[in-house]
Amino acid sequence: MRCKYGLKTEQTNRTQPEEKQAASAPILSVEGLKTYYYSNGTAAPAVDGVSFELHAGEIVGIVGESGCGKSTVVRTLMGLLDPISSRREAGTARLGDIDLFSLRPKELCRVRGKRIAMIFQNPLSALDPVYTVGNQIMEMLLLHEKMTRQQARERAIELLREVNIPSPELRVDQYPHELSGGMQQRVMIAIALACNPEILIADEPTTALDVTVQAQILDLLRQLRDRLGIAVILITHNMGVVAALCDRMLVMYGGVVVEEGSCKEVFSHPAHPYTKGLLAAIPSVAQDKERLYTIPGQVPVLRLPVRMCRFSSRCGCSMPRCEQEEPPLTERAEGHWCRCWQESGKEVPADGENS
Amino acid sequence: MKRYILMRVLKALLTIWAVYTLVFFLTRVTGDPIEWLTIAGASDSAKETLRENLGLDLPLWQQYFKSLIGLFTGDTGTSYYYARPVSELFAERIGPTVALGSIVMLVTVLIGIPLGVLAAVRHNTLLDRATMSTAVIGSTMPNFVLGILLIFIFSLKLRLLPSGNTGTPLHYILPVIAMSVGPTASVARLTRSSLLDVIGQDFLDCARAKGMREWKVVLKHGLRNALIPVITILGAQLSAMIGGSVVVETVFAWPGIGTLIVSSAQQRDFPVVVFGVLVIAASVTFVNLLVDLSYGLLDPRIRNS
Questions:
Q1: How would residue A1 be classed by pLDDT, with cut points 50, 70 and 90?
Q2: To the nearest whole angstrom, how far is the Cα of A253 from the nearest Cα of chain B?
Q3: Any CB–CB contact under 8 A between A305 and chain B?
Q4: Among residues A343, A342, A340, A313, which one has the least CA distance to residue A327?
Q5: Which CATH number goes with the domain that contains B131?
Q6: Alpha-carbon torsion A207, A213, A218, A221, what sign?
Q7: Is residue B75 part of a domain?
C-alpha cells in the first residue's frame, strides 16, 4: 500500500509496495485535506493537511483523542460539515475517477449511501425515532436501487439477518427505542450495507456500547470485511479496537497525521512520542499500578499558521527545534511514517506525569 | 391504550359536566330574564304567567335537573327570546362558525408550518428574522383589536371589503385574517424552534449520509419529529379560537354561534347561553383529547408507554 501526506515534497519518494493490496489502485485517495472551524472570525485548523489512501478490503483505523480532527476528516469526506461553522479549505478526495469535493449536491447524493456508507457513534440518536427500523433500511434501498417497497422490505429482513439480528421478520417492524444498543448499531450497519458500498466509514461505532457488545460489533465488522471485501475507515480513540481490527492505522494529533503504518509495525515500533504515550496509556492486566499513565497537558488550541510541532507542548522529549518548525512526515521503516524531529525517537519517560 | 382512551373520555365528560353546571348557576346570577322579555309596566300576573311558562317558577335545583335530564333525552330546551328549540337555533348558526373556523385552521397550518420550516432552514438570515419579528407582533396582538383595525382600514377608509355579515367569499377575508394571524404566527415560531432543535440531531446526518436530498431530509425526518410540539400548540390555538370566536364574531357581526351566545347573554336567554357554552366546552375538550391521542400516532415512543 502507498501512503501520501500533506506536504508536496513528501510525496516524491514513497512508492514502497506492501502486502497484497499494493497491486491495486486505491479506491479512495485523500490528499492535503484541510478543514477549518470558524468562530468569532478566528479559524481553528481542525484538519490541517491530511492525506491517506484506502484500498479494497482494507481496514484503516484513525486514532487520536477528542478534538484531534479524526471525525472532521470523515465528516468532510461525507459532506456533513455544518456550513455555518466550518469549511473545507483545501484538498481532494478521489473515489475511483471522481473527486468527491467537486460533485454537485445531486451527484453527491448518488455517492453517499451507495458507494460510501457511514455508521455513527450513537446508534440511538442516529436512528430516527419515529420510523421503524425496517422503514429506515428500506429508505436507503429505495433511494439507490430500483425496487418495489415489497422487494425492499424483503431485502431489509435479509440484511437484518446478515447482521445477526434474531427473528428479523419481527424486528423489521419495531422502532429503534424497542431495540438494545447493540441491536441498534447492527441496524445501523445493516442500513450502511444495504446498497453494497465500496467503503464503510465507522465513526466510533462502539464508543456508546458496553464492552461485551463492543466485541460483537467489532467481530461483525471483521466478518463483513472478510465476506464482502468492503473497505473500512474506523474512527476510534481506543487503541485496543485498532489492534483488534485494523490492518493499518493513522494516528492524528492537532489536525495532522503524526504517525502512520501497519498496525503490527506501529504497535511493535511506535516512533512518535504521542503514539508511545497512547500505547503507554492502555490499561494492562499485567501491571498492577495504582494509576494509569496519562499524557500530561491538554490538546492545545491551535492558531494559524502553525510553525511548530503540534505536540511539543506535551512532549517529554521536545527540543528547541520543535518550537520553531513543524516536522514533516518521514519514513522510518517500510510504510511506517512519523512526523517528529527525533531521528529514532527516544523513549517516553517511563513514569510520565500522572494527572 | 384502550384503558387510557377510556379514562380520557371519562375525564372529558366530567369536565363538560362541570362547565355546564357552573354556567347554569352563573347565568342565574345575571338577573331576571322576565324583565327583559316583558315591556315596561307589564302586569305582575302577566309576568307570573310567563315565568310559569318558561319553568322559571320552579326551585333552582329542579330547573337544573330538568335541564340536565333534558340534555340526555335530546331536549335542549326552548329559547326564551326566540321561543324556538335551542338546538334549532344552533343548527342554523353552526354552519358559518365551522366554515370560518375551518378556513382559519387551514390557513394557520398551510402558512404557519411552511413559514416556520423556511425560517428554520434559512436560519439567521433576513428571511428568518423578518418572519420571526412579524410573528411576535402577530401573536401578541389580540384578534379583536386586529379585527377592528382591519375594519377601520379596509372597510371604512379604503372601502374595499365588507365589514361584517356573510354572503360572498369576500366577507370571509377580514375575519379570516383577524383570526388566523395570531395562530399562524405561533405555529410558525414553534415550527421553527422545534425544527431547529431537530436539525442538530444525528439522525438527520444519518439520512444525509444515506444520500437523501436535503429538502427531503428536512421534511421527512426533520419535520415529522418537529411536529409533535406543533400539534400541541395547534390544539391549544384551536381551543382558544373556539372560545375566542365569540368575540371575533361579534366584531364582524358574523352570524355564527358566537354572536348568538353574546346576544343571548345580553338578553338573559339562559337555555341558549348554557347550551352555547356547553358546545364550546365540548369542542375544546374534544380537541384536547384528539391532540393527546395524536401524540401516539406521531411518536411511537409515546404509543407504547
A1: very low
A2: 25
A3: no
A4: A340
A5: 1.10.3720.10
A6: negative
A7: no
Instruction: Report pLDDT for B305.
Output: 59
Residue-wise pLDDT for A96-154, tens only, equals 888 988 888 888 998 999 999 999 988 889 999 999 999 999 999 999 999 999 999 99
Average the pLDDT over each of A263-267, A322-326, B280-284 and give the range with the smallest value. Answer: A322-326
Structural domains in chain A, sorted by start? 8-115+198-338 (3.40.50.300), 122-196 (no CATH)
pLDDT, greater one: A23 or A104: A104
Rg (alpha carbons) of chain A, rounded to whole number? 21
Cα–Cα dist A33/A73, whole Å: 8
Cell numbers that stand for A158 in this block: 435479509
Domain residues for the domain of B98 are 94-304
**Helix runs in chain A, H state only:** 70-77, 105-111, 123-126, 133-144, 149-162, 168-171, 181-193, 211-228, 239-245, 263-268, 273-280
Residue B214 belongs to some domain of the structure: yes
User: Using the 8-state DSSP alphabet, how is residue B39 labeled?
Assistant: -
- Select the more confidently predicted residue: B190 or A2: B190
Reported as a pLDDT band with limits 50, 70 and 90, residue B243 is confident
Q: What is the pLDDT, as a whole number, of residue A128?
A: 92
Taking residues B241-263, report their average pLDDT: 88
Give me the helix-helix angle, A181-193 and A133-144, nearest 10°.
Answer: 10
Give the Cα separation of A175 and A129 in Å (integer). Answer: 7
A1: closest CA of chain B, how far (Å): 28
Residues from chain B that touch A137, judged by Cβ atoms under 8 A, are none
Give B225's contacts in chain A (Cβ within 8 Å): 128-130
Residue B176, in any domain of the structure? yes
ipTM of the complex as predicted: 0.81
Q: Give bridge partners of residue A231 from the DSSP assignment.
A: A199
Closest CB to B202: pick one of A126, A132, A144: A126
Does residue B189 form part of some domain? Answer: yes
Degrees, nearest 5: CA angle B4-B5-B8: 85
**Residue B213: closest CA among chain A residues belongs to which residue?**
A109
Tally of domains in chain B? 1
Mean pLDDT (whole number) for B146-166 = 86
Determine, for residues A114 and B211 on separate chains, whether the beta-carbon distance falls below 8 Å.
yes
Give me the pLDDT at residue A188, please.
Answer: 92
Q: Is A30 helix (H, G, I), strand (E, B) or coil?
A: strand
